[in-house]
Specification:
306 residues; alpha/beta; Rossmann fold; 2 domains; 13 helices
Length: 306
Amino acid sequence: MPDTKRLVPILVGPTAVGKTAVTEALAAHWPLAIISADSRQVYRGLDIGTAKPGPELRARVPHFGLDLVEPGQRYSAGRFAADAVGWLAGIGTERMPLVVGGTGFYVRALVDGLFHEPPMDPARRERLRAALAGVPAVAAWAVRLDPGYTGGGRQRAARAIEVALLSGRPLSWWQAHARAHGVLTPWYVRLTVPRAVLRQRITARADAMLAAGLVGEVQALLGRGIAPDAPGLDGVGYREVVQALLGRHDRDRLLAAIVSATTRYAKRQETWFRHQLEGDVLLLDATRPASVLAAEIVARWPGEPR
């Protein structure tokens, strides 16, 4: 049976690679509606340090996924997927939906479909969690119980073990079942640049963020009573500013600290996108101008002309 799910372009790449510039260039070709797949841009008041799209672009192009919750609140990949399904339905056919972001787990949650966790006995689950707390090699057990486990830290490994033991099927099986009922077919566009170029861009952007008032943005949030380690403020860039304001490292080295942390984060993003994307992926050299990249995306688009 042919796949009748909507074909949707998904623009991904590490932080500072140039996704927003390409998005703006694409808006000259297509009537876009943007779904932001960025786990930090969901927070209100975190504007400078998350590089949210500017007001001019947001006035011309509808954006979804921005300013959804207050700092300190949790917003999960599952919630993003549920919200994005509604946004996609509301966009209709007049505009081209474009998913843009660097949060791989958000992209996966949307593409794979909504995963409804199987029913599991709460008492047995609590006992299992207590037992796993003392196990050092949970990842090894996760791989043995679920051959489809791809890593992601101790919490994800523990969840894979819980689902496998308490439901009788591996987590990857449940996720594949959800994927079959997903709402879209992805067409990935992955932007990449040499590591040295990316570090230059990260440095320039971090410098611009500090000049634009990133420290003041964080001070205002802390002044509202937001905890220093609250969700949102624990992200790259914000975490380093918080530490400087608390006197835990030298403020004169704040730029270097942000660049170093952001570079490590970008490397993890690159690794994730290199290995985790499935299906059609258009890999583009983002050292070229955004207008050139946008024109190539339009020319290579496998769907109906816009």
